[in-house]
Amino acid sequence: MKPLLIGVGNDFAGDDAAGRLVARGLRGASGFDLAECHGAAADLVTLMEGRERVLIVDACRAGAPPGTLHRLDSGAGELPPWLRSVSSHGIGLAEGVALARVLGVLPPEVEVWAIEGADFATGAAMTPAVSVCVAAVCAEIPGHLAG
């Protein structure tokens, strides 16, 4: 089975759209499957179930400069609490990964690439630094998932 890229976010909340824009930017790429979701835990569990390798791209608020890319390995333990802080997702990405772990359906390899955002307000435009990071991530992912 091919690796799966999941782009998480809200199209109507500024920088929160980053993960979904990465997924859309990779349409037509080969070697991996694509999915988009809002980040609800149940949706993430369902998408990950039965996979061997998953890469999730989402926006975050960790306190770094906008456009910073955080690369996390879910196999290293619990994800940091700042992945729970973007409220548009409900309970958040970290809880979705934890739920999959508890249910015994967490894939052997789950990476999270979190793009630091600045503006998550409804109707906001994407921050320029986040747009630059989205483009860079789109360029890097095909080679990363092929490796």
UniProtKB/TrEMBL annotation:
Gene Ontology molecular function: any one: peptidase activity
UniProt key word S-adenosyl-L-methionine: no
GO biological process, one term: proteolysis
Keywords: Aspartyl protease, Hydrolase, Protease
CDD domains: H2MP
Record-stated family: Belongs to the peptidase A31 family.
Protein name: Hydrogenase maturation protease
